[in-house]
Amino acid sequence: MPERQSELLTIVPLLSSPYLLVKKTARDQFHGVYHHHPEIQIEYVLAGSGVQIIGDRYSRFTSGDLLLFGPGVPHLRRPDPQYWREDQTKNFEVITLIFDPGLFSAAMLSIPAFKPISQLIQNSDRGVAIHGDAQAEVIDLLIESFTTDPVKQINLLVNILHCIGNASDLEYILPEPLDSPPSDNVSNRISNIYSHALEHFRDTITIKDIAKVANLSEHSFCRYFKKTFKKPFSYFLAELRINHAATLLNETDQSISEICMESGFNNFANFNKWFRRIKHCTPSEYRRRYQV
User: Fold this and answer.
1) What is the pLDDT of residues 48-107, one digit of tens each?
2) Residue 251 — pLDDT band, cuts 50, 70, 90?
3) What is the spatial distance between Cα 162 and Cα 112, in angstroms, rounded to a whole number?
4) Which pLDDT score, from 0 to 100, does residue 35 have?
5) Given this model, what pLDDT does residue 121 score?
6) For range 156-170, the mean pLDDT
7) Is there a common fold for 7-172 and 184-290?
């Protein structure tokens, strides 16, 4: 099979293979770039946590998450800061399976037994989160794939897709498919915006600052961001800060006032206002509800 041209090839070396199964850590493979590619990607988080942006949806990921991204679904995943430190002791590991949907011909997908796989591939452009019994079964099949020969790997891939396609508790990440994958220029602009925001959300980020990153005037940036992401940049920035604060509330014993400052808010009243707006409860209520 000839080498396929894909933005992914500059990040993960598919070379001429239509199938790739790898384990990734925070240090060796996670690039934090908003990108898309024509391959289908299944990703299982063995250990670790971080932030992800799929299409225009921002959320957190954590150990045990299992996702499928279809062709052209733009995505970014960034491990939390502690996994990048030289003295870090926490493990971060992800299993990624990437394959060319062309492995399955139209004739094969027209077979009645392959209907769940055909429908899954058709709906994969919304991104899929796998839960419940299907999640456990797919994880076992992914792990088994590491210890078998290439022909059996393809058979296991069929079993993985069949299991997901028949699952009753799938969660679609995007409410509807994107109109079309962003162009390279748009992907680069969005990636620059996201990377800067994720890196500096604890600091003051003015519209002037972020517009410069996007290479736009302030007025043009505000229109561009709201049109692209269906929300103003101020709301997106608040989401980053509040989700970071929620993680600290859940995973640490830091005081709420310390978490407020560490999350980029310069006063407690503003922090409380945004927390209620995004999480629909106060920080202390959130801690009591979710902290184990």
Assistant:
1) 888 888 887 888 888 999 999 999 888 888 888 777 776 666 788 889 899 999 899 999
2) confident
3) 12
4) 81
5) 95
6) 94
7) no
| Whole-angstrom distance, CA of residue 214 vs CA of residue 207 | 10
Helices 233-251 and 283-290: angle between axes, nearest 10 degrees:
50
The count of C-alpha atoms lying within 13 angstroms of the C-alpha of 141, restricted to the half-sphere facing its C-beta, is 23
Angstrom distance (rounded) from CA 236 to CA 60? 14
Architecture of the domain spanning 184-290 = Orthogonal Bundle (1.10)
How far apart (Å, rounded) are the C-alpha atoms in residues 226 and 53?
16
Q: What are the residue ranges spanned by the domains of the chain?
A: 7-172, 184-290
Q: What is the domain class of 7-172 according to CATH?
A: mainly beta
What is the tens place of the pLDDT at every residue in 166-179? 998 899 998 888 77
Residue 45: pLDDT band (50, 70, 90) is very high
Q: Which residue has the tokens 């139209």?
A: 106
d(CA 88, CA 217): 40
Task: Residue 175: count other Cβ atoms within 10 Å of its Cβ.
Answer: 8
Please measure the distance between the N-terminal and C-terminal CA atoms of the chain and give it in whole angstroms.
Answer: 51
SS3 assignment, position 109: helix
Question: Which residue pairs from 228-233 have beta carbons closer than 8 angstroms and sit at least 24 positions apart in sequence?
Answer: 228/56, 228/190, 229/56, 230/56, 233/207
Q: Considering Cα of 7, then 13, then 15, then 19, what sign does the dihedral take?
A: negative
